[in-house]
Design goal:
Length: 400
């Protein structure tokens, strides 16, 4: 842990594994420390940066309440990594890696707003509807078409080399548009309830749902559905990933697999109480639990083992964390320096930045390695939370 703050107006302290927290994220952490539903302390992971309502890379506990924005809009976003027995030297040839990369692009829909042409079948849809009917528009046709697709932003598929010389496959993706709609739907309900009961909030973005109210139970039910959806989404993509990789290297054996969420809430025992732990851009790191901490598209990722540190609510970082906003990356970085950072890694080059604002029309450098914190520094800052087991470096990257 780097520091602890307990200032005037705080109900409890903020404990940080991030040495230099950006001002906006510090304000958000202070708001959480004043929040009427939050208990014990606020934990900031070393990849902490400003989010919506709550910092990304934040962990909090509540009693008998859930805060939708403290889970976030990409409910169930997470990682899956699979170890193979293929020596990385088999992929030394760039053109061979490019062939695998090209075939993956043909088989897995990638990018913002990109989905399958046809709806996908999954028993989970019917189970949800049979038990709950159609709540708002969960699930809808878009959710059925999005299942088994990567999405955009920082979501990725990677072929990686372990430090002991073997190939791993890794995916980062979540619940696509479903999680966003669930968060927005229940955040509005939370704001309405908090106004009804005259709750004083440090920030309206941190509106909460009491679990004694039906809305709290409904949110938790639909959040769990989004977690199932996100896990199934990754499972389907990894199945295609394995099949495609095996076409090029038929002798491949797939060994251990690690699959985790990093945007969710769960009721767990901490400090002698059953608490609702919110991990927004944070990963569970219970004792001996395996986890994944990815870096940027040009830097290392880690397979880790949790140490079960109670001070972080048995959590760790979910990645490197941004050090530069998307717009800032597009306006400050150059294509030349970003190409240099990706030297030797198979990937598509930079598209046009599609967002509004100063960066519109410029090359989209928002996911370049320079836009993220140094992953080795992040890992070094949390060695009281995790034990690094495997270091992985990218050979080929397919970005959303």
């Amino acid at each position: 842990m780097k520091w602890i703050k307990f200032e005037d107006g705080y109900r409890f302290p903020v404990k940080s594994w991030c040495e230099d927290v950006e001002p906006g994220a510090l304000v958000q952490a202070a708001n959480l420390a004043k929040h009427p539903a939050v208990v014990h302390h606020v934990a900031l992971m070393p990849d902490c940066h400003q989010g919506y309502g709550m910092p990304i890379g934040g962990v909090i506990a509540t009693e008998d309440a859930v805060i939708p924005s403290a889970v976030g809009v990409d409910i169930g976003c997470g990682m899956v990594a699979v170890e193979t027995d293929i020596p990385a030297e088999r992929l030394e040839d760039l053109s061979f890696r490019r062939s695998i990369h090209t075939k993956l692009k043909e088989r897995i829909p990638v990018g913002d707003g990109v989905s399958h042409a046809q709806v996908q079948q999954w028993d989970g849809f019917e189970e949800y509807l049979d038990n709950n009917g159609n709540v708002a528009d969960f699930p809808n046709t878009l959710d059925r078409k999005n299942l088994g697709t990567l999405g955009g932003g920082n979501h990725f598929l990677e072929i990686q080399r372990s430090d002991d010389g073997f190939v791993w496959l890794m995916i980062h993706s979540g619940s696509r548009n479903l999680g966003k709609r669930i968060e927005e739907f229940y955040h509005k309900k939370a704001m309405k309830l908090n106004r009804l009961y005259h709750v004083s909030l440090p920030d309206p973005d941190l509106a909460f749902l009491p679990m004694e109210e039906q809305e709290g139970h409904d949110y938790f039910r639909d959040m769990l559905f989004a977690l199932r959806y996100a896990a199934e989404n990754r499972r389907r993509m990894m199945k295609v990933f394995k099949e495609t990789f095996s076409e090029f290297l038929p002798e491949t054996a797939f060994l251990r697999e690690v699959n985790i969420h990093h945007n969710y809430a769960a009721f767990e025992e901490h400090f002698g109480k059953k608490l609702c732990i919110h991990r927004k851009g944070a990963t569970s790191a219970k004792a001996d639990e395996l986890g994944i901490i990815p870096g940027s598209m040009g830097t290392a990722s880690y397979i880790v083992r949790g140490l079960g540190n109670p001070e972080s609510f048995m959590s760790c970082s979910h990645g490197a964390g941004r050090c530069m906003s998307r717009t800032a990356a597009c306006t400050r970085l150059t294509v030349e320096e970003c190409d240099a950072a990706m030297s030797g890694i198979v990937c598509d080059r930079w598209q046009s930045y599609r967002k509004y604002g100063k960066g519109k029309g410029l090359p989209d450098l928002s996911e370049a390695p320079q836009a993220y914190k140094a992953i080795d520094d992040v890992i070094a800052a949390e060695l009281d939370l995790i034990q690094p087991l495997v270091r992985l470096t990218p050979l080929a990257v397919l970005k959303g």
